[in-house]
């Protein structure tokens, strides 16, 4: 039997999202992740975008928000 590392086994490999970079643009912090999703934060609002660039949800500083 040939040794196969656990990280190559499909059943055991768990996909993790890793922060690739964070940039400060026009008073916003833009965080890009390994799955091409991004989070954009300002003083008033946090927005989550998926890999297609669609807005998934947002929250403001008062705790209000909306899920899409």
List the secondary-structure elements in sequence, H or E: EEEEEE
The number of strands is 6
Query: Into how many domains do the coordinates divide?
Result: 1
Give the termini distance in whole angstroms: 49 Å
Q: What is the percentage of strand-forming residues? A: over 45%
Helix-and-strand structural type = mainly beta
Spatial shape: elongated
Strand order across the biggest sheet? Answer: 1-2-3-4-5-6
Measured on Cα atoms, how large is the radius of gyration?
Answer: 17 Å
Determine the number of helices (DSSP H or I, runs of at least 4 residues): 0
| Helix percentage range | under 10%
Written account of the structure:
This protein is mainly beta. The chain has one domain. The chain is built from no helices and 6 strands. It has a 6-stranded antiparallel β-sheet, with no helix packed on it. Strand 4 and strand 5 form a beta hairpin. The model has no long low-confidence stretch (mean pLDDT 89).
